[in-house]
C-alpha cells in the first residue's frame, strides 16, 4: 500500500523491517567483488586486497625458490596482484580514506 508521508511516497510493505525478523542486517555489501560498507567505506575491500596480495607475494617467493625465471614471475604478478588491484578501481578509489 502506497502512502504519502511528509511529502514522500512510502511503501509500508518494504519499509517495515519488523515484518522480516529472520533477515539480519549487514554492515557491508559486496557488489561485483567490491565490498562497500554501509557508510560507503571500502576499508574492508582494501584490507582484503592487502591480504590477498601478501599471499600472492609469498607464493611468488616460493616459485622463485623453485626456479621460475623473472619474466614468468612478472607475468604471474601482473595476472594476479595488478589485476586484483585495478579491478573496478574506478568505482571504489574515490571512497578510500587515508587510513585505508
Quick overview of this protein structure:
The protein is an alpha+beta fold and 100 residues long. It has four helices and four strands; from the N terminus they run E-E-H-E-E-H-H-H.
Notes on the protein architecture:
This protein has helices at residues 12-15, 43-65, 70-86, 89-92; strands spanning 2-5, 8-11, 28-31, 34-37. It is α+β, with helices and mostly antiparallel strands and 100 residues long. The protein has a domain at 27-95. The chain has a two-stranded antiparallel sheet. α2 (43-65) runs antiparallel to α3.
Helical content band: 40-55%
Tell me the major beta sheet.
2 strands, antiparallel
Q: Runs with pLDDT <50, length 5+?
A: none
Q: Total number of β-strand segments?
A: 4
Strand content: 15-25%
Count of discrete alpha- or pi-helical segments spanning 4 or more residues: 4
Shape: elongated
Query: Could you tell me the radius of gyration in angstroms?
Result: 21 Å
Question: What is the strand arrangement across the widest sheet?
Answer: 1-2
Roughly what is the average pLDDT, rounded to an integer? 80
Amino acid at each position: 500500500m502506497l502512502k504519502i508521508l511528509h511529502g514522500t511516497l512510502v511503501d509500508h510493505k518494504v519499509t517495515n523491517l519488523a515484518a522480516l525478523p529472520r533477515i539480519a542486517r549487514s554492515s557491508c555489501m559486496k557488489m561485483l567483488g567490491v565490498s562497500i560498507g554501509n557508510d560507503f567505506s571500502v576499508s574492508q575491500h582494501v584490507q582484503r586486497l592487502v591480504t590477498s596480495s601478501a599471499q600472492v607475494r609469498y607464493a611468488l617467493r616460493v616459485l622463485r625458490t623453485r626456479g621460475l625465471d623473472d619474466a614468468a614471475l612478472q607475468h604471474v604478478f601482473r595476472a594476479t596482484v595488478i589485476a586484483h588491484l585495478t579491478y573496478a578501481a574506478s568505482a571504489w578509489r574515490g571512497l578510500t580514506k587515508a587510513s585505508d
